[in-house]
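Slide 14.
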Amino acid sequence: MQTLEQLKAGGLKGAKKLKLACGLTQFPPEILDLADTLELLDLSGNRLTQLPQEFARLRHLKIAFFSDNDFTEFPAVLGQCPQLEMIGFKACKINQITEGALPPLTRWLILTNNQITQLPASIGNCARMQKLMLAGNKLTQLPPEMANCRNLELLRISANELTALPDWLFTLPRLSWLAISGNPCTQHGQVVADLPEVPWSELLLEEELGQGASGIISKAQLKTSSSVSRPVAVKVFKGEVTSDGLPEDEMQACMAAGAHPNLVPVLGKITHHPEQKQGLVLELIPKDYQILGITPSFASCTRDVYPQGTAFLLQEVITIATGIASVAAHLHARGILHGDLYAHNTLVNGTGHALFGDFGAATIYDKADQELASRLERIEVRAFGCLLEDLLEHLAPHEKNQETGLAFHQLKEACLHPQVLERPAFETILAAISQHILA
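Slide 15: predicted structure.
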């Protein structure tokens, strides 16, 4: 991270990236001296409340982060930045976005955990919008002009005050990853199966295994008797609104998912945590399982990335695709929209067996509403189509023209159909794999 002293002394001349977190209450005017080169500006973690009109001089700026500041209004001057396409204002105090404030080239907008009650109609001018993060606000509806955002692929509107989902939402041809839990329109009184209780005192935490937006996962020992214990994984939720939604909704969905060969088994829920936090005890994943893909980059926006040289054998693709389609069918049969069907949420071993996880964006929906159920499932089918497309793009060269590989390409195209209800259901996908592709 650079320093304010470096900036004021002119030591950052020619910089393309600038990150300052030093308790700023005013926008440093020296940043404008970087107008000819600056492409990424990160002023997160300060105490800013506004930006100057001269900010528009940053004509090469593409990415701007202002999370964890004290803004109450989305700065209208950003709408005058000609190249700005990725904007982050997570966990500020924004309650107002004026018309025209959103740059027309915006494709990735993060407004998680604010106090926004209404979106401007001009958001419909953001034709390039691909990723829109709005969880944890006070929205009661979405403007109909958003129907013009035909490139929207990932939408997070969990933990708002939406009483209904607009019909146009299900006409967006590229929408693939949707999170809608924690709204009045998703509260339908469904009873979720409970889990065995595991007192915190019976767990001995060891090393941390990973940390996500919603919680921390650690290896632990679970006491099974006075002298015997077994290794497990423990996820303790942070209790805060995440970019996907509320931790309690994730926990409910994880419990409601039940058992499946391609899901990490959930052993119980934690009780009597010293800080009253919620958590789950999970089966410890064997070390031979590796993450299938890497989370999207700034450039890829909504699509996972893969290490250079990644190549899958056709049999691996078949096994992975079968496992993920099977677990997705299982979840939707239980009325669960996962909302984050991605390679980076999938672990695979040497045989291609997949374990699917991370229910942070999941929604439990009303299966009795058959029209809604069909629409939500087929939005998720497009996410599966994107995963299948990734796998096929990284298929080993000598297997790309095999008849089975070509059949997989046809299945992928069916999953990516621009008309939502023209896509196959997951049970149909499974049947296609077993009856035609594997025949």
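Speaker note: The chain has a mean pLDDT of 93.
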